[in-house]
Amino acid sequence: MLKMIKYEFRKSFLQTIIAIGVFVALEIYFLLGMYVFDSRIHAPIAAFGLFFAAICSYIFVLLLGTISYSSDLKNKSGYLLFMTPISSYKIIGAKLLNTLIQGVILLAIICGLFFIDCKVVSKEMNVGMMVEFVNMVLGNMGVELTFLDVVIRAIYFIFTFLLEFYMIITTAYLSISLSSTILQNKKCKGFVSFILFVVIIIGVFYLACHLPAIKYAGTSFGANVIRDIPLLSLFLATTIGCFLGSGALLNKKISL
């Protein structure tokens, strides 16, 4: 499994370096905008560029993981990979873990640059007053967050984010596997994969809108988590089902 993860990481290393290079270039532009150029013009442009790149990094990691799986089903290198005496579930799992590693690397870069930029901006602006204002607004709303509350909410956000992310990418894997099963050696497999992906995702969210609600009184964070249990269970079941379905199709149905 570890060797498979290393293989996947080396295969996508160049794309990851390019993505990191984009963030570094934008950060250099931001620092130059703060200290060298007119900060009122260049700093906001660079800040928006960093924000936009952070959003695009999510799509980048998602597409990179999906394209890796799709290309392995088409190319000779993929034929050699899937013909090795390694379980198809381990191969898919390695791809998913490599996608997670790439996401963590980019997230670490984004958080590091965000910390640097906050330090830079705090020297130029009175950030302390802004923080006090936000705390005052939250206090007037009856929201008092301790450090532990922030940590718990952050963990829950990361968990739900990863669950939704893996639901999407495993659905893409299943769509690619189904199209490769139905339309072997056909040029329109990519388009059919996309249609299947859209149909499955629409179906999942249709079910999500019709799930039985958990009636739990209260507006606290814990109450919201309890009410989210049916939706998160659906996402988890979809992720596991798509993962197992893709592995089963690789083992029995797909002709490489």
Task: Please give a structural write-up.
By secondary structure, the chain is an all-alpha fold. The chain contains 10 helices and no strands. It has helices at residues 2-11, 13-35, 42-74, 76-82, 88-124, 127-140, 147-182, 189-209, 221-227, 229-252. Helix 1 packs across helix 5 (88-124), helix 5 crosses helix 10 and helix 7 (147-182) packs across helix 8. The mean pLDDT is 77.
Give the percentage of residues in beta strands. under 5%
Average pLDDT figure: 77
Distance between the termini: 22 Å
The helix/strand class is mainly alpha
Total strand segments: 0
Helix content: over 70%
Low-confidence stretches: none
Total helices: the number is 10
Query: What does the oligomeric state look like here?
Result: single chain
Radius of gyration: 22 Å
Q: Sheet with the most strands? A: none
Shape: globular
What's the helix-strand series? Answer: HHHHHHHHHH
In a nutshell, what does this entry contain?
83% of the residues lie in helices and 0% in strands.
What attributes does this structure have?
single chain, 256 residues, mainly alpha, 10 helices
Topology:
Layout: H1 2-11, H2 13-35, H3 42-74, H4 76-82, H5 88-124, H6 127-140, H7 147-182, H8 189-209, H9 221-227, H10 229-252
Helix pairs in contact: 1-5, 2-3, 2-5, 3-4, 3-5, 3-7, 5-10, 7-8, 7-10
